[in-house]
Structures are given as structure tokens and as C-alpha cells.
Amino acid sequence: MSIKLKWAEVHTPLFVAGCNLGQKLDPHKRTGLKLFLDKEENLLEVHWNQEVGYVPLSNVAVMIKAHEHHEPKPAPAPAPVCKVEAQVSTPQDHVFKGPGAGKTK
Prior knowledge:
The protein is an all-beta fold and 105 residues long. Helices cover 0% and strands 43% of the residues. Strands 1, 2, 3, 4, 5 and 6 form a 6-stranded antiparallel beta sheet that branches.
């Protein structure tokens, strides 16, 4: 039985398919990396570049199980109400024009 993982850390750097994956294995940062926990064999399966690496659980420091449901993405930040400019035309101008004229409220 394999359990999908979303993150794992091993004690020593891991080399799979001629590539140094390092100690912290994060599929979100490395496209194509897949991690599975094989409970029957007590192994961490690392799928990378059409090859599979097997790491004994004694060499694994931390594993985080992947959740089956997808977390909602946060809403994008609202666009600024006015155009923010960092340049000044004269020495007397405020650096930030617009609401507040560069002064705090």
C-alpha cells in the first residue's frame, strides 16, 4: 500500500537519475518529483526523471502526507486605487503622491 507524500526530508543528500535532489524533497519546487511511502516494505519511493529511488525509513527524518482535497487559493490582492509613483518632480513634492500625500494617517 502506497501513501502519497507532499514533502520529505532525508538524513543524507539523495541522488536519483544522475541528479542531486538534496535532503529536502519538495515536489512543489521540483516539477516531476513524486514521493510515496510504501508501508509494506518500509521504504520511501522517490520517482524522478523516469527512475525510482528507494530510501529506507531509517534514513528519513520527516514525511508529510499529502491531502486528497485541494485547498482553495487565496484571492488576489486588490489593485491600488491610485497610481503609485516613486519619482518626484521637485524637491518639495512628496515621494508618494495620492491619498494621504505621502503622510501617514
